[in-house]
Amino acid sequence: MGILFDKSLETGNSLIDDQHRELIDRVNKLSESCDTSTEKNVAVQTLDFLMDYTEFHFRAEEKLQEESGYPQLQAHKAQHAQFEKAVDELRQMLEEEEGPTDAFVAAVNRNIVEWLLNHIQVCDKKVAEYIR
Length: 132
Prior knowledge:
Blueprint: H1 14-32, H2 40-68, H3 73-96, H4 102-131
């Protein structure tokens, strides 16, 4: 399940939106690598590639919130930590298997794709609105 970055995902903050485009591109690459015929190491590398950028993006977004005095910063950080934990759990799941399984693909859709769409459309839009 690929994500299309469209108007519904725009926050109005160019820095956040540009980073979200890159993040979504990496999520889409992970989704593409989740074919059950994919070698395990390819899926692991793609998951690591996603996590590297996720950490960069979350720290940049949190810095913006801190600089603007965003009152929900701690709650937002907690959501980011929840996502990072979910990705770690996916990595462990993948390590225990021969490669991406149907259960892994379902977990990626639930814990990455759906979470990210909801987070952008609800939480990140609130942040961008506050910063404006």
